[in-house]
Write a structure and sequence with these properties.
2 copies of one chain form a homodimer. With 262 residues, chain A is of the alpha/beta class. Chain A has one domain: Alpha/Beta hydrolase fold, catalytic domain (Rossmann fold, 3-Layer(aba) Sandwich). Chain A has 7 helices and 9 strands. In chain A, strands 1-2-3-5-4-6-7-8-9 form a 9-stranded mixed beta sheet, with helices on both faces. In chain A, helix 3 crosses helix 4 and helix 5 packs parallel to helix 6. The C terminus of chain A is likely disordered. Chains A and B meet through helix 1, helix 6, strand 9 and helix 7 of A and helix 1, helix 6, strand 9 and helix 7 of B.
Chain lengths: 262, 262
């Protein structure tokens, strides 16, 4: 892991790095020492490791909770070379969005191919991050990523026992269900009720496929890009519950939740 | 509204009252003066106004946020007389639960009949509560109730413009959809993925029927009575967001939620 540059703002250090030919970014509290929870952020399709939403989320996690946060460019994204197929798929998605059509099996296959490359890249990144003093080995690790971030994050979480909690969503293609069935850590899953790219039933089916004892579906009205702002806070609480408080898997609230009876 | 008794514990005043022949309970901060948000709690079927879950929730809302909280016995519940039909329906539900069968249309019809009586009772209760100094008129009012609490609460909220935010769930019978379509205030809706009494599709359909611009579905694995403890906190944040902070309806987070891209 080679660090290339460091900038700081509002008490947050942002360091760009490369690991082999994969470019990444690490956010952490300024002058952080000692181990801390780590959250990995997976960006959406057509986006990159420093997309505005990821930067805002990283700053929040660092300043409010002292987490370390990292993102890498997915294959064919950000500062990485794009193949002819990448360009063709991107153009195809643009056309489907313009036409209001759901993403088809070609995109699901392309994303699965991206994931097959991205999963070992994330694992090597996690190895390197855990060798840093300010992260450390053996601590809690969260993953957040929706849409393409889930196409990669679900198989990553299935393969990677170091990830202890994950936020996914805006995804529901068939190939993901098999990986989801191997995920057992707590999951918060975002679904947009009127998602023009992911059919509602496909999203519900993917939520159903996770083997996690604790999994919680948050569905809201609106299109693919319309996740409401309050879900930002909800994801944050999900991570603090699982990465900081180290809660045991959720138990039914029983009578204390006031839902006794019918 | 005639107050019958007052007990206090942990800084919470609990006053039993009757309004006509409807028995109720009001929780409030000890020595509260001046208006404050009010939350109405609807109990589940076979339960009553002082079920353990309602008491725990009321104490939390009073001590953490200074809300006033009220509950009344539904027709045929708690301290109210039960008709022969009430007894028959209750026995039928017990049998269906034992057999693992969903609640049928007979229960839905019975609940609709209960709701037709309970809605004006709740409205008269709200009139009386808002005449109290410690509640006041014109302030924010929330409703929380799942299962039978929703069978009554959904038509109540549809009919009652003073209710400004509501938590519903564990319900999905056909007659409720029509009332749900007349609800426009923010709604948080709880669904149990493996609910033995309410088919999953019926719950999803009821969520879909609300006309609210902000509505959020929280689905969790488990049976009817297995709502996880973290949903207690979530309902509380929902009410503080809408009754205290007075948020405008949710706006898409756009790029700040990091969900740009696909």
């Amino acid at each position: 892991m080679r660090f290339i540059s460091e900038t700081t703002s509002n008490g947050v250090s942002e360091r760009l790095f490369t690991l082999g030919d994969v470019p990444g970014v690490l956010w952490s509290p300024l002058d952080a020492t000692g181990s801390r929870p780590l959250v990995l952020l997976g960006h959406g399709g057509g986006q990159h490791k420093r997309a505005a939403g990821l930067v805002a989320r990283a700053h929040r996690y660092v300043t409010a909770h002292g987490f370390a946060v990292a993102a890498i460019d997915a294959p064919g994204h950000g500062d990485r070379p794009r193949t002819e197929q990448d360009e063709r798929i991107t153009a195809g998605i643009r056309e489907r969005r313009a036409a209001g059509e759901p993403l088809g099996p070609d995109v699901a296959r392309h994303n699965a191919a991206l994931a097959a490359r991205a999963v070992p890249e994330w694992q090597a990144t996690l190895d390197a991050l855990q060798r840093l003093d300010l992260v450390g080995a053996g601590g809690p690790v969260g993953f957040w990523g929706v849409s393409l971030g889930s196409a990669i994050g679900v198989p990553l979480t299935a393969a990677e026992p170091r990830i202890t909690a994950a936020v996914f969503g805006l995804a529901g293609h068939e190939p993901l269900a098999e990986a989801a069935a191997r995920v057992t850590v707590p999951v918060e899953f975002l679904l947009q009720w009127d998602d023009e790219l992911v059919p509602r039933d496909a999203g519900l089916a993917l939520f159903g496929a996770f083997s996690s004892r604790e999994k919680t579906l948050h569905a809201n009205p609106g299109r693919h890009a319309g996740v409401p702002a309050f879900e930002l806070e909800s994801s944050e609480r999900f991570f603090t519950r699982h990465l900081l408080r180290g809660d045991a898997p959720a138990e039914p609230a029983g009578s204390s939740a006031g839902v006794e009876g019918r």
